[in-house]
Amino acid sequence: xxxxxxxxxxxxxxxxxxxxxxFAEYGKVVSSIVIKDRDSGQSKxxxxxxxxxxxxxxxxxxxxxxxxxxxxSITVNEARPQEDRRGGGGGGFRKSY
Length: 97
Description:
Elements: E1 3-8, H1 16-24, E2 29-36, E3 43-51, H2 54-64, E4 68-69, E5 72-73, E6 75-78
């Protein structure tokens, strides 16, 4: 089963291909994504890597957490499930008397 990892402390210049290459040393990478600001397109300094095998993902997590990558010490943890981001509606004009 695939395991998704959170990777924090990334260099703002790292690409998804470079991130994938770092983790590929420990096993098969299903996907890698660097989270970017929607307006500027600049990296926010974190991303996610999904690895095909749980044991390979745990090995990568142990080996890479705290390691220096592109001049920055990275944090690697198992990703938490994404929160439901749907708004509750409302937010309209409210008349005060």
